[in-house]
Structure formats: C-alpha cells, structure tokens
C-alpha cells in the first residue's frame, strides 16, 4: 500500500500530521507493507534564504490578525506537539526558503533515507531554530542521517532533483491541493490536514481491505 504525503518543512501541521500517521501505522497490522513517500509543497516559495521576520509577524501580516492572536494560535500547536512528543520552539523558528530542503528529500528518497531526513528537517526547523536554507546546515543534516557527503554537496550547491520537486508541485495542482499536509492513500483516498489518529486508522483499514480483499 502506498501513501503519498504532500508537505512542507515549514508547516507545523505537516510535522503534527507526520507524527500522527506514524502512530497510526504502529497500530496497523500491515504497516510493514506500507510505503510512505513525502512529496514537495512550498507554502511560501518566495521566502528568503535568511530570516527577515519571526513567525508571529508573518502570520499577523498574512492572515490580518494581531501578533497576540498569532501567539495564541501557536500555543495551541505547541500543546498538540507535546501530546505527540514534538517540542515546538516557535520563538526560535527561522522562516526561510525550503526549496533546497525539498530537493534533498528527493535525494534521500532515492537512497532510502527520506523518512529520517524528513524528521530531521522538521526538528531542525521547529525545535532547533536552524536555517534550513543554509547550505552548511543542509549538508550537516543530510549527512547526519547517512547520506553521502559528495552527493549531498552536489545537490545543495546545484539544482539536482528540481525536476522531481516540480513534478510534485504539478501533481499537487492536478489534485487541487491548496494546503498541507495532504495524504493520498493508493492514489484514491485523501486526508487533508493534521487529523486525529482515528481518521488515519480508518482510512488505512479501508484502503487495505479494498486493495487486498483476499489477504
């Protein structure tokens, strides 16, 4: 069974959704036959490579809310993260471009390390307060999870896997995806947003029963 997940490293709900899916798979008896692939989506493709504002000012400007309202909304995300074992340090987040991070995720997919790198990038962005547009940071994170240094450096310094990123973005448009996370199971069942574990469990069971009715 295949699960495609459109997400962005800079999306806290994507981080929450990833962890919730992982928990659902722990309880799913056929988890060893499930392939999860993370697909590229950029919430802010025009973001700079160096942070120019904090997350609260950004949300305030984007959604027309006060800074205090933005802080309150993020406190809810922080609380949800605690339930899933995620430490959100929103005050430290560096809001920078995730384009190169997405290209590295495709390199990681080709090397069987995508889930590891995805988790490391989320932690780097939301917990460690690192700039995931910084080439040195990206090289460090990618090699930490076991990707080969020469290839990582080549991808970070060039445009490797950009075609794969573009293909993901085009598929997202074809599906009508306007927000993430967005989960597609067996190219048929869709889950939008960081839903409760029960929603994932139900969808997994339904998709498995349909694709493997005699097993």
Q: Would you kindly provide a written description of the structure presented here, covering whatever features stand out?
A:
This protein is of the alpha+beta class. The chain has helices at 12-26, 55-63, 67-84, 99-110, 114-126, 135-144, 149-157, 162-175, 197-211, and strands at 2-7, 35-40, 182-185, 189-192. The chain is globular, with a radius of gyration of 17 Å. The two termini are 13 Å apart. The model has no long low-confidence stretch (mean pLDDT 96).
What tags apply to this protein structure?
215 residues, Glutaredoxin, 9 helices
The fraction of residues in strands falls at 5-15%
Helix percentage = 40-55%
Q: Number of domains in the coordinates?
A: 1
Major sheet: order of its strands? 2-1-3-4
What is the fold's blueprint, element by element?
Elements lengths: L1 E6 L4 H15 L8 E6 L14 H9 L3 H18 L14 H12 L3 H13 L8 H10 L4 H9 L4 H14 L6 E4 L3 E4 L4 H15 L4
Parallel strand pairs: 1-2
Antiparallel strand pairs: 1-3, 3-4
Helix pairs in contact: 1-3, 1-9, 2-3, 4-5, 6-7
Summed up, what is this model?
The chain has nine helices and four strands, in the order βαβαααααααββα. Helix 2 crosses helix 3 (67-84). A hairpin with a 3-residue loop joins strand 3 and strand 4.
């Amino acid at each position: 069974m295949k699960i495609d997940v459109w997400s962005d490293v800079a999306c806290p709900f994507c981080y929450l959704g990833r962890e919730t899916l992982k928990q659902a798979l722990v309880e799913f008896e056929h988890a060893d036959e499930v392939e999860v692939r993370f697909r590229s989506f950029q919430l802010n493709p025009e973001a700079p490579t160096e942070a120019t504002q904090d997350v609260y000012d950004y949300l305030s400007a984007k959604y027309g809310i006060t800074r205090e309202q933005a802080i309150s909304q993020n406190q809810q995300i922080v609380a949800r993260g605690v339930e899933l074992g995620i430490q959100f340090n929103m005050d430290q987040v560096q809001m920078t471009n995730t384009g190169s991070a997405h290209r590295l995720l495709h390199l990681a997919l080709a090397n069987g390390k995508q889930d590891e790198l995805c988790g490391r990038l989320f932690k780097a962005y939301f917990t460690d307060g690192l700039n995931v547009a910084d080439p040195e940071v990206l090289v460090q994170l990618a090699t930490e999870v076991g990707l080969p240094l020469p290839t990582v450096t080549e991808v970070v310094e060039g445009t490797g896997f950009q075609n794969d990123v573009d293909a993901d973005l085009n598929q997202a448009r074809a599906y009508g995806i306007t927000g993430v996370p967005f989960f597609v199971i067996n190219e048929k069942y869709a889950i939008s947003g960081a839903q409760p574990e029960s929603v994932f469990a139900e969808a997994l069971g339904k998709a498995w029963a349909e694709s493997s009715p005699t097993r």
